[in-house]
Amino acid sequence: METAADSLDQEACYRAALTRDARFDGRFFGCVKTTGIYCRPVCPARTPNRQNMRFVVTAAAAEEAGFRACLRCRPETAPDLGAWRGTSNTVSRALALIESGALDEGDVDTLAGRLGVGERQLRRLFRQHLGASPVSVAQTRRVLLAKALIHETDLSMAQVALAAGFGSVRRFNETFQALYGRAPSALRRRAERPPGRGVRLNLSYRPPYDWPAMFAALKTRGDRVEGGAWSRDLDPKSDGAAGFVTATPGAAGRLSVCVEVDDLKALPGVLARVRRVFDLSADPEAIARDLSADPELRCLVEARPGLRLPGDWVDGGEDAPSDRMEDETLVVRAEAWRPWRAYGALYLQINGLLPVAAGDGEVARRAFAA
Prior knowledge:
By secondary structure, the chain is an alpha+beta fold. Helices cover about 40% and strands about 10% of the residues. It has helices at about 5, 10-20, 60-65, 90-100, 100-105, 110-115, 120-130, 135-150, 155-165, 170-180, 210-220, 235-240, 265-275, 285-290, 295-305, 330-335, 340-350, 360-365, and strands at about 30, 35-40, 55, 70, 200-205, 225, 230-235, 245-250, 255-260. Strands 5-9-8-7-6 form a 5-stranded antiparallel beta sheet. A 4-stranded mixed beta sheet has the order 3-1-2-4.
């Protein structure tokens, strides 16, 4: 069985790392055998010799192999393309649940049950598509979120441990000591922080991004959008805490998010929902490449690059998304766009070539088969 690591062209990955090609940021990570560190392809450090490097498809695969995240290029700031790897609906759905904290208190068997598969099958799929186990993926998510909180906020280490999903401060300290050979507080670099309340983080995405179109879509469906910023009040029943969240486009490839909650345990779930609302894990290069195979769509994609699908704040279902368009008149053309059919429908709808109902985010979202 071919795994995610087997599918990587190691020589091509090395050439991309040598040139620090930003197109590959988030697509793979380079593990340096001599130092035990793994880096993004755009790391500013000198690229090691070829024989000292191997490349893996996810940060989780690197950490499971015993490598630790580079402190210069900060892998936690790379675009997250996890849901776009491979062709498994089950893996995509599992990643969304893990990002929301499904393995912070539950186990892999329970997660597999939610997905309607066996535990062994889920582990096999993760190994095939991500090169790591579900537990390793969850652990890496906690570590990278904690690193982002350490670098970008003034939260205490106890608060960071709670917000990142660690069960205890002791476990948090032990994990960082094992990975980095130092206490987590040693990773903090004092810097000027923007004034204001709440936890402020930058979430990464891969440009281009059509922000006017996204904000227009969110406002049309009733979301609160004012002055180029999106905001939402948090509900303890659905979000696990009371408070609010705001999001504003920042520097290229960054969405600036501020979350104020009365329980920091809710932070991972809130961030996961923000990523889903703004479709931050999408791969626009892959979308454009596949949609451009259709002559009519090619012109639309070139005219409006970076369109994204607005996602729902609350994920309505536990099952993997359907791979069928609900509007049967679209099925014939949509079959040629797999798995980009929802984005194809969005481009056609926004250009007036489909009725609005057919391009609604909920219909399009269910039509997208990862």
